[in-house]
Amino acid sequence: MKIYDWYNGPYPARVRIALAEKGLLPGIEFVSVNLWKGEHKQPAFLALNYSGTLPLLELDDGTLIAECTAITQYLDTLDGHPTLTGKTPTEQGLIHMMTKRAEIEFMDAVSVYFHHATPGLGPEVELYQNAEWGNRMGEKAIRGMRYFDGLLKTRPFVAGDEFSMADIAVLGGMIFAGLVDLPVPEECEALLAWHGQGQRAPQRSGLARDGGAAAVAQSSGSGKPARHSAVLPDLLEVLAKCRMTSGQNLTGCHNSGVVHRQIAERQGMHVFGGPEASG
After folding, report:
1. For FRET with 141, which of 7, 114, 134, 241 sits at 20 to 30 Å CA-CA?
2. Pick from 195, 169, 196, 155: nearest CA to 98
3. pLDDT tens-digit profile of 3-40?
């Protein structure tokens, strides 16, 4: 299978987390689509995905599946033992509901903030921007953070008692918010504690921190699924051993924000945070 993505894209990170949870990372070929160059909006990629968004899954028979939830659903049920999308109709309904809520109220709002209230991906990609709308969506994202904080005061995970696709969607929002420097309110103690636990989970630590670059580097280096490791290595150590699929040597960067800024600076781009790739 192939995944078309960008190494620290917040939306692609959701699928990388799902792959790690299912122990599937070593079997995936990652195809880099450079968001900063607008490759996801070029005819070659649009021929694969009409929406022009990442990630995109290509099966061995050529079937193409876009959208994070659809890809995660497929990956989760491959082995007949779903762990991320629910086993019963009730679980499935709740998980899909909360996943959509995480997108609408949080992650997609951060995306709109990035594209409209900051330089986004640059003038060649951002053909229209509305700063007022972008700032409103930034406020909405913070309201979403407060909503999920309240929810996580009553339950261990977003959709109930088990880690699920809904948690992955909120993790994606946290990754994106961190990349664009949209701070989580200090009073959101439950959300911050939940996020901290997610970063400490062996199969999620690098993914929740850097959008998946570390886990892919580790799996390609060791040949073992990230979920089977004791702890994902520090990102500095991983990147020192790995040249990402974009061809950039990222040695010496301590987190994806620094990585992103160094690449942007070398290419003469603006240095705002994370790229868009909705799904």
Report:
1. 7
2. 169
3. 999 988 999 999 999 999 999 999 999 999 999 899 99
